[in-house]
Amino acid sequence: MARGGRDRLLGFALGLLLALALAPRALRAKPTVRKERVVRPDSELGERPPEDNQSFQYDHEAFLGKEDSKTFDQLTSEESKERLGKIVDRIDSDGDSFVTTEELKTWIKRVQKRYIYDNVAKVWKDYDRDKDDKISWEEYKQATYGYYLGNPAEFQDTSDHHTFKKMLPRDERRFKAADLDGDQTATREEFTAFLHPEEFEHMKEIVVLETLEDIDKNGDGFVDQDEYIADMFSHEENGPEPDWVLSEREQFNEFRDLNKDGKLDKDEIRHWILPQDYDHAQAEARHLVYESDKDKDEKLTKEEILENWNMFVGSQATNYGEDLTKNHDEL
After folding, report:
1. pTM (two decimals)
2. Which ranges carry the EF-hand domain (predicted)?
3. Does 2 map to a domain?
């Protein structure tokens, strides 16, 4: 399966966090390279191309971003191996000196969850203004849009005016969806659902709807092929489309447009960005075992992991290197 559209979910998880600040939101420029929207629906592991440092880096950046992906570079290879060895001991939950696919999967899910909740904790104090351990819609609105709401004339003739006008009701709609008890305040769990809707089943419709609204430029309630491509790629100059764009057009026709009517409806968008038969943690765990299991016994020794340390440092199993910069007692 082509790599187009792989980290839409990451965009929700990280993009919103980057946008959350007390200053007004800025309108992002359209990318000139591929913009991706779905967690990687990779091909079968046995069909993957041989890994090298560049492809490790792709996995690394696709799930964390370029800046944080550099974290593991702060350590020497020997330091990385030493700390990775301590992490291996923690992954081996039954203490049998082997790491199985299931143990890796469990560890990866733990790291994913910790990353999400750590990020919520970092921004919590900016929005919980009355320190009651809840965030009301009014608190969030004032923290995020207060300056705009108080000084509308400053934005009247700017592109930011359209952005704020669009994003405020959109954020309110998402907040209400996350607020399960309807009291207009968010607990930590509800605020986590607000910031990371892709992680919560009851928020999946919001993810689909926001994706549709982002891409559907003509407002007909569907995503046609040109809109699909324009979301990933824009021509800076008139010229031929790159090969990957042509491949994405084929993907649209063959795999995205399920009913072959030339456009994507909500169900087809859901199938695209939220594939039901794909478990990232399972796929990542299987991939790590497949690439590192020298004796093909379907489990890994510490020695096999350390021999292939560069893959694990760049893997979600070590939170893309973040765990390697922490002391053992912090893990």
Report:
1. 0.72
2. 79-114, 115-150, 166-201, 203-238
3. no
Report the distance separating Cα 100 and Cα 290, nearest Å: 11
Residue 312 lies in a domain: yes
Domain count of the fold of the chain: 1
Distance CA 192, CA 176 (A): 13
For residue 9, what pLDDT band results from cuts at 50, 70 and 90?
Answer: very low
Cβ atoms 232, 248 nearer than 8 A: yes
Please enumerate in sequence order all residues whose Cβ is within 8 A of that of 201, keeping only pairs 6 or more positions apart, or say none: none
Rounded CA Rg of the chain: 22
What is residue 40's predicted lDDT score, i.e. its pLDDT? 41
pLDDT in tens, 254-283: 999 999 999 999 999 999 999 887 888 888
What is the distance between the alpha carbons of residues 326 and 329, in angstroms, rounded to a whole number? 8
Tally of residues, the chain = 331
Task: Give the structural domain span for 199.
Answer: 75-222+265-330
Give the Cα separation of 331 and 65 in Å (integer). 22
Q: Is residue 114 part of a domain?
A: yes
Q: Which 3-state string (H, E, C) describes the chain?
A: CCCCCCCHHHHHHHHHHHHCCCCCCCCCCCCCCCCCCCCCCCCCHHHCCCCCHHHHHHHHHHHHCHHHHCHHHHCCHHHHHHHHHHHHHHHCCCCCCCEEHHHHHHHHHHHHHHHHHHHHHHHHHHHCCCCCCCEEHHHHHHHHHHHHHHCHHHHCCCHHHHHHHHHHHHHHHHHHHHCCCCCCEECHHHHHHHHCHHHCHHHHHHHHHHHHHHHCCCCCCCEEHHHHHHHHCCCCCCCCCCHHHHHHHHHHHHHHCCCCCCEECHHHHHHHHCCCCCCHHHHHHHHHHHHHCCCCCCEECHHHHHHCHHHHHCCHHHHHHHHHHCCHHHC
Per-position b or e across 7-20, b if 16+ CB within 10 A of its CB = bbbbbbbbebbeeb
Question: Does any domain span residue 188?
Answer: yes
